Amino acid sequence: MASSLYAGISGLNASAKQLDVIGNNIANVNTVGFRAGKIQFADILSQSMSGGSSNAMQIGRGVAVSDIATQFSSGSVETTSNATDLSIDGEGFFMVNDANAGTYYTRAGAFHLDSDGNLVDVNGYTVQGYNLLSANPNTITDISLKDVQSNPEVTTTVSVGANLNSQTDAGRIFNAAQTVYDSLGQAHTLKIEFQKAEANGCWSVRAYLDNNEVNAIDYSGLVFDENGTLESVYGATATETLTTVGGTATVVVDREGQIYRDGAVTLTRGATAGVWTIASAEYENALIASSGVDGTDDMLAIDLDGEGGADITVSLGGTWAAGETVALALDQTTTDPVDITMQVAALSNGATIGLSESGTNEVTWDLVGSDAEALTGFASTSVVKALTHDGYASGVLQSISVQSDGTITGFFTNGQTSSVGQLVLADFSNPSGLQRMGSNLFGETLSSGVAIKNAPGSAGMGELTSNSLELSNTDLATEFVNMITAQRAYQASAKVVTTTDTLMSELMNIKR
Predict the structure, then answer these.
(1) What's the CA dihedral at 87, 90, 92, 93 to 10 degrees?
(2) From-to residues of CATH 2.60.98.20 in the chain
(3) CB atoms within 10 A of CB 188
(4) What gap in Å lies between CA 99 and CA 101, rounded to an integer?
(5) 210: Cβ–Cβ under 8 A, 6 or more apart, which residues?
(6) How far apart are CA 126 and CA 117, in angstroms?
(7) How many CB atoms within 10 Å of residue 295?
(8) pLDDT level of residue 17 (50, 70, 90 thresholds)
């Protein structure tokens, strides 16, 4: 009779423990990443009885709690507005470290950046993974975005997409300017100046960096065909031949692009010093734009198209007599469109720009590459359509996103994006052997086995989903049913105790 009393008491204790587990599950129904528990029971070693039967006769001694197992089935997912809120679609745990480098494991992915730039959970523990911009990008450590920045990239190539109006009057100028960057990330203005030449479809080009003309440019002019398509590029030179006794002359080409065909220009000294005439069969509109000091044979500025501006400068010296001449030979070389190299002067801040292997700063104007913007010569308004270059300034981290493989992508104020980190997940051969540590954390045990660490989406690990949180996997309907059965079991066990007590009372009354 005493056995039934103790069996009933064991039933009361077991049902109470079951209600403890159920209560904890229900209490954490809204806890992010919570894993519900499930209680298991086992009977207590039975008492054997002797008797005439050949079969063993045993009486049970009650019930005991054999296991409280953690359920690692996935919970539902909630969408959030925070990019660092993460959920795991599949197997694995996030790894977080406390201040003493103790490692814990969790399914709760409510992360944020703290004041030091570390990615942390709600406990302030640092999330583990790779810092891809650090000196040791393959070492698992605290994910830190402190002082992460995008380094500047020097501009080496530029491209201009524009239409140059074929109906533009000769001598008119159209500019296309864009911002470029040196090796220190400092901004500069690169301007390409297009000037309409007298010949149909011809435009001269000049380039300026911060209003200083480049030291040299491969080709100084563009030619468009009758369909407005860029047909060729050209460069030009000029040489001089003198017919004089004591005079000297040196020619300098100020605007090569205005030498749009081969030809000759003859300058003839008049009867008076400083007075010269000009003649050219190829450049009918050529004129002397200006001369030097009045009454002195020292300089002549030649305007080849007669639209203003010096295209060629002739420096004179020595003694000149009336009728003596300077014959200028103009030589223009045309080729199919090619990329144009511009040699830029040294920068005052000591930085470089463009490619500098040869000791000079060379910026490439991409005219024919696969990424080249289109230049056209249609009979419509001159307009810039696109300006591109491959350089940028330094930038600070503006925002981040997390990819399914755990890669953290940074978006910087200079418009660049870069992979700055990657989360790593852990899994165990026996997750049920993990020990609950509170605060949605689990600890490794001998029963769970050693943590197996891999990137999300690899080696059986689940993939990550950004802007989402995995909720508790508590099933309220199941818990309510379990609560009812636990309540009934408790009541039944209590009935066993009261019934046994009644029987014992009757036994005590036999004496009366």
Answers:
(1) 20
(2) 157-218+338-389
(3) 19
(4) 6
(5) 188, 189
(6) 10
(7) 11
(8) very high
CB of 465 closer than 8 Å to CB of 83: no
Rounded average pLDDT over 416-440: 95
pLDDT of 496 strictly over 90 = no
Of 303, 326, 331, nearest to 315 by C-alpha is 326
Collapsed DSSP state (helix, strand, coil) of residue 106: strand
Is residue 387 very low, low, confident or very high in pLDDT (cuts 50, 70, 90)? very high
Residues 6+ apart with CB under 8 A from 28: 34, 36, 472, 474
Contact 406, 462 (CB under 8 A): no
DSSP labels, 213-278: E-SEES--EEEE-TTSBEEEEEEEEEEEEEE-SEEEEEEEES-GGG--S-EEEEEEE-SSTT-EEE
- Rounded Cα–Cα distance for residues 263 and 281 (Å): 8
Share of the chain above pLDDT 90, in %: 74
H-helix or E-strand containing 503? helix 476-509
For residue 362, the model assigns a pLDDT of: 94
| Number of H-type helices and E-type strands within the chain | 2, 41
This prediction has a pTM of 0.73
What the block records as the tokens of 114 is 């703290």
Q: How confident is the model at residue 119 (pLDDT cuts 50, 70, 90)?
A: very high
Taken as a whole, the chain contains a residue count of: 512
- If pLDDT is split at 50, 70 and 90, which confidence band does 48 have? low
Give the whole-angstrom CA distance, residue 7 versus residue 74: 37
Query: Does 46 score more than 70 pLDDT?
Result: no
Looking at every residue in the chain, the average pLDDT score rounds to 91
Report the alpha-carbon angle 270-271-275, nearest 5.
45
Asked if residue 261 lies in contact with residue 270, where contact means CB atoms within 8 angstroms, the answer is: no
Please tell me the class of the 157-218+338-389 domain.
mainly beta
The CA distance from 298 to 319, in Å, is 10
Tokens of 60: 């049970």
Single-letter amino acid code for the residue at 342:
M
Neighbouring residues of 372: CB distance < 8 A, sequence distance ≥ 6: 159, 366
pLDDT band at 51 (very low <50, low <70, confident <90, very high): low
User: What 3-state class would DSSP assign to 4?
Assistant: helix
What span, in angstroms and rounded, lies between the C-alpha atoms of 103 and 226? 73
Residue 337 has pLDDT above 90, yes or no: yes
Identity of residue 252: V
The whole-angstrom separation of Cα 461 and Cα 9 is 45
